Amino acid sequence: MKSTKSSKRSYAIVYIYVVLSYMLYACASQASLGGGAKDVAPPDIIAQYPTHEAMQFKGKQIKLTFNEYIQLASPSENILVSPRLEKSPDFVLKGKSLVIKWKEDLQPNTTYTIQLLEAVKDITEGNTLASKHLVFSTGEHIDSMMISGSLHDAFTGEACPKTSVFLYENLNDSAPLSQEPDYVTYTDSKGDFVFNNLPNRSYLLFALEDKNFNRMYDLPDEKIAFADTYIQTYALPLLHTDSSQSIDHDAMDSMRIALSFFQEKDTTLKFLRRNLIKQAHYQFVFSNEVKDFQLISLDTLIDDLYVWDFGAKKDTVVLFFNYLVDKDIRFQVIADDCVFDTLDINPADKGSLMKMKKSVKDSIEEKKVLSYTALYAGERNRKLCLVFDYPVHTADLSKCFLLELKKEKKIDTLVKESGEDSLVEVLCYDTLIPQLNFEDSLQRRLMVDYAWKSKRDYILCVGDSIFASALGHYTDSICLAFTTKSLKDYGNIHIYYQFTEEQPYIVQLLNEKKEVMNEQSLTFDKSIAYDLLVPGKYSLRIIYDANGNGKWDSGNYREKKQAEKIIYFDKVIEVNPNWTVEEIFSVK
User: 0.90 exceeded by the pTM?
Assistant: First the structure.
């Protein structure tokens, strides 16, 4: 009997072993599933409570059921409930459903809108549900009024996508500064926005670059836009015919609110930083334009220790030391009669990138070279310019001259080694004296002015050590060869500017990089010829210079000042060689 039990037990063990071995082999030899089509479809709502545009809703939660399992992405930012709730609701996932639970009682007789922006994605491929709206009412009717508009950058005119736009029931101007809005939406990719299902009333309209996501204008570097007046809601305009009705798009466009997006200018003057550019060359950068600058030494009495001038913008000061005093000197940084900082500066400091161990070759005294960069060589529309690394302290301009290659060549005799004579052509040059002058107070930009001829070869010749800096840098011999362009290499734009009224305007010609190539102030209609332009794409803009200060000014919300208006020409102008484009830029 015991033997029989033992046999059965052994058989069972063997059976289990065989089954397990087969399962392990089957698992190990499984083939991967065949790849199907990639899931590109976003989740879809297949049921919702309450239903869209339901009335007399008294529930404590909203339930949306999808056709697949979902995940939420920043629901507090991407699920918008309007009008505003005092307490943010809870967002709970249950199976394939999203449940939105209120933490407070809803207002009576109120139409609510829930916007699902980019909050809902599927869990497989991350496909995002397109923007969806759920509307319901706690009363006996659904509000159907609206407000729509567009948001564009006040300076560039470009659309501002994905930007917060707010409505406030509180018509106090301080509302955007101190409280969250009652209604929230975002602009689309074209900068357009719309509020639907609003009650019949007026609102304060405000747009915000909400950097800290608190829906209040409380950071000085946030961009804003606001409507000058309170905005009254309106019904969707319709065109009625005998058998149908359609949206009246012309009426719709006439009621759209155009908002200009700007950042208020901080007029507080601050010293931001000093930069060591190279030995004895510094930049002092401020937050705004400065009118005057001083670097006052507190522990040395050296006269003419430095020279300075403004940079390309007047918020930057460019400074060069005239002496390489190799020690830290205590300086006060003063701008517009205010002391901003006290700094230790070594005029001989070369910066960390230039601090190298001296080799035997370095120990030998070498000539300090005053380097330069040549700009606009060969251009007919600009003067030739030499930009030196350091201010020029001394210069003998009488030893600077031009060679102009003649068209005719001279025939000369060349004696070969064999003693035979050979006739050769020799290039001939005329020696010219150009007009030379420094255009800046630091004497770093030397302008070479001459009545250049088309398609001619020139050589600018300057002898050795003609230009010298205060620090003992000298130029090598300069032999700058270039060929001038023909007038046919350039194009022209002739514009007739027409205005609605006589007031200050600034008209600007911009290149493809949006750099200002030409700027003029006008007060009335005028034709302007932009000649000798390098072929390329150009644009035009008109600034309404309301305060007549010759520059564009941003707005200020507290003072209820909009940014100065800018109008761009409605097309890009392409300039081709030897061609003139004529256009009328009318703002009438």
Answer: no
